[in-house]
Specification:
This protein is mainly α. It is built from 19 helices and seven strands. The longest helix has 27 residues.
Length: 440
Amino acid sequence: MAKKSLKKMSLSFDSCNPLQIYQYHFLKTKTALICGDLRQASLHVELALEWAIDLESPLLLGLGCLLKAHVVHELGENQEAAQHLAHAFSIACQTENKPLKFHVLWTEARFAFDQGKEASGLKRLKKALSLWKKHGYLNTFIDQPSLTASLCARALDAGIEVECVHDIIRKHNLIPDKPPLLVENWPWALKIFTLGRFALVKDGRPVQFSVKAQEKPLSMLKALIAFGGRDVREDRIADALWPEANGDMMHGSFTITLHRLRKLIGIHNALEFRNGRLTLNQKYCWIDVWAFERILGKADRTWRKGANRCDITEAVELIQKAIEIYHGSFLSGETEKPWKIALCERLRSKFLRSIGRLGHHWETSGEWGKALECYQRGMEVDIMAEELYRRLMDCYHRLGRQSEAMLVYDRLKRILSETFGIEPSLETKAIWKSLHYQKK
């Protein structure tokens, strides 16, 4: 539509009107940037700058420099891009043009992140959003929605002006190309919690529903998540919910229940059903299971890379973030269903492995207090993980708190006896005996 409108504009504007000609080349540059046509963008941005100079307008020149910076940045000319931004910023300061100043800072943040300069990017982002908070600049001179969404995600992840960023996302209706599942406080249309509890939050508000009236639609949603949430076959969900039904009855029940689930959620395109497969659209939905596994996946990759201290620090922070999301087993407290067992065990295994890795990291760093807190966090979620009791006993021992180490053993012994009628393992008993003799 922009291309068609610009074509009409090129045939109708007054060739004697330099402002119209500037606007035409400015808009042609923006369109070319969005389409990735850097040759056309380079051509038209030069013409826009020439007309801005002829018009002797500081604002138009500043905008032209801002646009030129975007073009040369896309061409990989970072130093030249910085020079054009500096010129635009100078004009913004001289003319006290706060909107232009905001957009220069916003662009500097984007360029810094692109070059891996995280600290600089966050600093510029904080300054830009501080201006936005005061004045609320909705217009974007260089409109690249996916990039704007990416910057918003970074701001939310860093906790910068969260309410303002939510406002930007809603007013621009931003939907990122890659859903920021790692950013829980993105203003998701729908958030689904399944770890330790089951809850739906729509547009920031908890969804209230009658469990009895909505039992089947909610069971469909739970089964869909248990099976991965993406491209799940209709027959797989139907078999889980109506194991005794025949083919036609099963299909009819599936169709009716899906309709009821869509009505309950009330978000267009949140549920996609194509070619007999059902998908939760991750552009609109945040699910704690997805976030938990995605964060741990990134942590594993960062840990394996481990090229320097920063990599390990980042991996540790990611693991801690994942552990905070895991409030208990998948759909804990609900009736046991065969279809949820596989996911429940996989997530539990990942959680315990993460607790073990993080605790071992603190142990090797000599930070026994942090290791102790880590193992305690794991036991809050899984009181049957005997390995955590052993590690906790060792932490108390290292901290010179022998009596508390013995109490940990007593607690484990009582839980195992009352639950399974068994004793702690030989390995755990050996640790207890060692501590017992040392105490004597």
